[in-house]
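Following the same procedure, sequence and fold were stored together, as reproduced here.

>
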Amino acid sequence: MGYIAAPFAGNVPLFDLLAADERGFSIPIQVKAINGPSWQYRADTFVKIKHVHKSQYFLGKTLLPNPDLICIYVFLHKDAQPDEFFIFRLRELQDLTVKNYFPNGRSRVRPKNSTSTHCAVCPKEIESFRDNWGLIRKSFEERRA
């Protein structure tokens, strides 16, 4: 695509690499890879949750430090099948989390651990973002404006 990507040796909590264009403008990118069925994370990263007895209640979305952060989720295949790439903005994962974690819109009951906020996203749930490489180009174009 004509960009230069630089990873970091240490832990940078919000992103894994910087991609730069020929002008030296850069965008942060978060990369997550799996070779199993889903990417695992905590819903309370994206959603404000109130715990009451065994129920969890939706109080709204959390404020993301960078909602436009580019995320690349990689599904690494163990066989000869090509790896799959899903490219989207962090706010789109937040929207999906709200929809999936609170499917009835306002509350849920966790069957085993009522305080757990564990959730996951499968490749089929983010299929619309498959090979969405144009989002990276679009992000650099937005930096020009």
The CA atoms of residues 73 and 140 lie 19 Å apart.
